[in-house]
Amino acid sequence: MMRLRVGLALLCCSLLLVSASCKSGKADENAGAPPKATVVPEMDPNNFKVEHAERFTLTTAVEYKSAPELTVNGSIAPDVSRTVPVISLATGKVVEIHARLGDKVKKDQLLLKLQSNDISSAFSDYRKAVNDERLTRQQLERAKTLYEKGAIAKSALEAAEATEQDAAVTLETTLEHLHLLGVDKDHPSGLVSIYAPVSGIITDQQVTNSAGVQGLSGPNPFTISDVSHLWVVCDVYENSLAQVHLGDTAEIHLAAYPDKVLKARVSNIGQILDPTLRSAKVRLEVENPGMLHIGMFVTAIFHGQSAVTHAAIPSTAILHLHDRFWVFAPSGNGYFKRVEVTTGAQLPGNQQEILSGLAVGAQVVEKALVLENTVEQ
């Protein structure tokens, strides 16, 4: 009986609520709805607030004057004017090689020997020229005797003299041919010896043992380069060409010897630009102290004529992040702003030159890495 009374009471309450709702004509909008979400904005990595900002010491960017610098990449190349091909006038087969690619040779050093049929032909021409010259000389002497006795006319004597002179020229020419082939006329041999025309390094070799040499019609057996003076060939972009002038001096830095700095002089600025890279070839001449090798990669630094003003800050104030450089500048009320900068040369006193992104007199956090670690925590 008691349960029945409780049920009736609950039913009456429900009816009263429905009746009240119908009378107002409006349902409760918030009935059964989830609580509203609270949106927390994400922290801007370039503009953020930290607690106790006074802990981070600030430093002021000072003025630094220096000549503008242009840094380009290049490579070591041989000086074409000091590169000499080794020429063989004879055609034949290589029987001996006394030098190899990369060897250091001296002038008149034996490089290789050829077995050539050109020698037998040249020696045959020489022997014929010797006989012809001897015969014409005898005929000239006989003609002189006959002319003195009135047996022949003067024109016959002049003809004999001309014939003897032609024979002498032919003999001289054939003898010179033997000398060019490297043959001794008194000790003829089927071998041709080829010697180094200059001292230097063999930078190209086109022959091997038992290979054939085609004389002047084929490739040169060797190429010798004088490496006491070399070229540095650099690529300079079109928008930087105004910073390079003929006769300027550049610093050459070597990857293999980072503690060595060489001086080179600009001897040529290419007049034709690469249509793809928009760069010109700039050639510098450098004296080789012995450490330079053809093909080495180098860095050339050109210094401008007039000084420019940049900012300078401690190296600790610069943060290297994602291949870029940043500093932290205060924005007030505990806020800091991360600013991207372009760095220049490393200066004495643990200072760093700033080429762009920061003005002289601006304040930045002295220890950027400490602030970055605090933010990440």
Describe this protein's structure.
α2 (118-148) packs antiparallel against α3. The longest helix is centred in the middle third of the chain and has 31 residues, at 118-148. Among the domains are: 48-67 and 307-376, conserved putative lor/sdh protein from methanococcus maripaludis s2 fold; 117-189, Helix Hairpins (Orthogonal Bundle). With 377 residues, the protein is α+β, with helices and mostly antiparallel strands. The model is unreliable at 20-27 (pLDDT under 50). The protein is rod-shaped and about 140 Å long. The protein is 24% helix and 37% strand. The chain contains 4 helices and 23 strands. β19 (319-321) and β20 (324-332) form a beta hairpin. Strands 1, 3, 18, 19, 20, 21 and 22 form a 7-stranded antiparallel beta sheet that branches. A 6-stranded antiparallel barrel has the order 4-13-16-15-14-17. It has helices at 2-24, 118-148, 154-180, 368-376; strands at residues 47-49, 58-60, 62-66, 69-78, 83-86, 91-97, 104-105, 110-115, 191-195, 200-205, 212-214, 222-225, 229-237, 249-254, 261-269, 279-287, 297-303, 308-314, 319-321, 324-332, 335-347, 351-356, 363-365.
Sketch the major β-sheet. 7 strands, antiparallel
The CATH architecture of the domain at 48-67 and 307-376 comes to: Beta Barrel
Number of strands: 23
- Radius of gyration, Cα only, in angstroms? 46 Å
Overall form: rod-shaped
Fraction of residues in H or I helices:
10-25%
Q: What name does the CATH topology of the domain at 48-67 and 307-376 carry?
A: conserved putative lor/sdh protein from methanococcus maripaludis s2 fold
Instruction: Note the gap between the termini.
Output: 68 Å
Indicate the mean pLDDT. 83
Secondary structure tally, helices? 4
Order of secondary-structure elements? HEEEEEEEEHHEEEEEEEEEEEEEEEH
Helix/strand-derived category reads: alpha+beta
Percent of residues in β-strands? 35-45%
Ranges where pLDDT stays below 50 over 5 or more residues in a row are 20-27
- What top-tier CATH class of the domain at 48-67 and 307-376 fits best? Mainly Beta
